[in-house]
Design brief:
The protein is mainly alpha-helical and about 475 residues long. Helices cover about 55% and strands about 5% of the residues. The chain is built from 25 helices and 5 strands. One of its GO terms (molecular function) is zinc ion binding.
Length: about 475
């Protein structure tokens, strides 16, 4: 089904997840007076809304299971609103059909793409009431407090889910509204976040979206290897055609690679796809291509099983802070994937959390802006898998704080530290209580550190003693300056 021109001004209905439909429909008109039709429609909409929101009206006759959550529906109402659902329900079927209400997994209805529970309920509510509500913040915003939630990952992904549902159910007016919202994202969002928009636009032949998506991705600096991995063959072929066209016009989008080197790089990536690290070793030995030339660690970070990634990392041949064509280090790639079994080893090996992308984002910013509040604040029950989103964000924040603290401490000269110690000793001797507290802070610092920096004449060689509470030292130094 193709969608072309729709509502002339959808932005008045749907902007940043809000809508004028959220307000009550006026029933009085200053010119015409009382409007019974509007009042009737409003009451009808509110009454149908009760069927979804009020447990006392639980007269559903079927269940659609979305992300493990059973959602009760009324087949007659949905069939009347959607020809697709009418044809679907006519076929019968569904689990437990003989025992009571038939149950349909959402994957039986939406064959292309993913639709989350909140997105499905949003579309369902529109089908029942004809009204658009505010987007639920827990799934359409991120956990970065500095983000406007205009083009962050969750905002885009939620709109994409709405499109998969509304286009599958053939709700034309909702498709047009969401299509305009997705069009708003293109040009502002990172190219990685445009790819899911491109996929849904291609699947449903959304003619307003497709040209902009193709041009944005084709003009980006995302290398062909990543695009070939991320996109279906038909879409990638069109991207290649457009890039060739731009190249002929004197606008090369990516750096050209020597064909022989490109062949070796593809062989390395294919070996990684096959989990064959030993073959990667042999290919590196037999060619002039290095692990960094192939961005092999970037590739393993993005696409390989954690076990294979650790083997590639263990080769010790990659620059952990090397940036690819998009300006991403391996830690940036790991932050997008949000797998603790990949991100934590990188931090342990010394990947720099302070490195930023070409648009100024650090790994923790990337991680926060791709994480929904629903996922970050989800409580983990006993026996459940740990909250991966929170683990990754917390680990990156701790590493950032550690590096900032180290940088702050190194700005204090050894002479200043030595002076502070002598001043503290003098003030403590005069009975100053605050100084006794600060002295206690300094006592947390091992002798090795001060012996090597402040008192080089001391002979302290045990490396295991070099553990420093740097933030405490910094606070104490600031206190002495007051």
């Amino acid at each position: 089904m193709e969608y072309e021109n729709g509502l002339s001004s959808p932005s008045s209905y749907l902007s940043n997840g809000s809508t004028d439909h959220d307000a009550a429909v006026p029933v009085m008109n200053p010119e015409s007076g009382y409007n019974p039709d509007l009042l009737s429609l409003t009451k009808l909409s509110d009454s149908l809304d009760k069927l979804l929101c009020d447990d006392d009206y639980g007269y559903t006759d079927a269940v659609i299971v979305v992300e493990g959550v059973p959602v009760g529906v009324h087949r007659c109402l949905l069939a009347a609103r959607s020809q697709f659902l009418h044809e679907f329900f006519k076929q019968g079927g569904g689990d437990n059909a003989r025992e009571g209400k038939p149950r349909y997994p959402i994957s039986d209805l939406v064959k292309k793409g993913h639709v989350g529970c909140e997105a499905f309920k949003y579309v369902l509510r529109y089908m029942y009431t004809g009204k658009l509500k505010l987007f639920p913040a827990e799934v359409s915003t991120c956990v970065d407090s500095s983000c406007a939630h205009d083009v962050c990952g969750p905002a885009i992904n939620y709109a994409v889910e709405l499109m998969y549902a509304s286009a599958t159910f053939e709700i034309a007016e909702l498709v047009m509204l969401v299509q305009r919202r997705l069009l708003h994202f293109i040009g502002k969002a990172a190219v990685e976040d445009v790819i899911p928009i491109l996929k849904v636009a291609f699947n449903f032949r959304l003619k307003e979206l497709l040209p902009s998506c193709f041009e944005t991705v084709a003009r980006s600096y995302m290398d062909s290897i990543v695009l070939e991995k991320e996109l279906p063959h038909e879409i990638y072929a069109e991207i290649k055609v457009q890039r060739d066209r731009f190249g002929e016009a004197g606008e090369p989008m990516v750096t050209e690679v020597n064909p022989s080197l490109e062949k070796s790089i593809k062989q390395i990536h294919k070996a990684l796809d096959n989990d064959d690290v030993e073959l990667v070793r042999r290919l590196l030995n037999e060619s002039v291509v290095t692990l960094d030339d192939a961005y092999a660690l970037h590739y393993a970070t993005a696409y390989c099983h954690p076990k294979i990634f650790k083997e590639v990392l263990g080769l010790g041949l990659a620059d952990l802070n090397l940036k690819d064509s998009r300006g991403y280090t391996v830690l940036h790639v790991a932050a997008r994937r949000k797998a603790p079994s990949i991100l934590l080893p990188l931090l342990y090996k010394g990947a720099c959390a302070m490195e930023s992308t070409s648009d100024g984002q650090t790994a923790v910013t990337i991680c926060r802006r791709s994480t929904r509040p629903k996922d970050y604040f989800q409580e983990t029950k006993q026996g459940q898998e740990s909250n991966k989103d929170r683990i990754c964000i917390d680990a990156l924040e701790r590493e950032m704080q550690r590096r900032i603290s180290e940088a702050g401490y190194m700005s204090i000269s050894p002479d200043a530290i030595t002076d502070d110690i002598y001043r503290l000793d003098y003030l403590v001797g005069r009975g100053k209580p605050k100084c006794r507290i600060v002295c206690y802070v300094f006592s947390l610092v091992d002798l090795y550190f001060f012996g090597k920096i402040c008192f080089p004449f001391l002979d302290v060689e045990e490396p295991h003693l070099m553990r420093v509470n740097i933030r405490c030292i910094r606070c104490a130094h600031n206190f002495m300056k007051e």
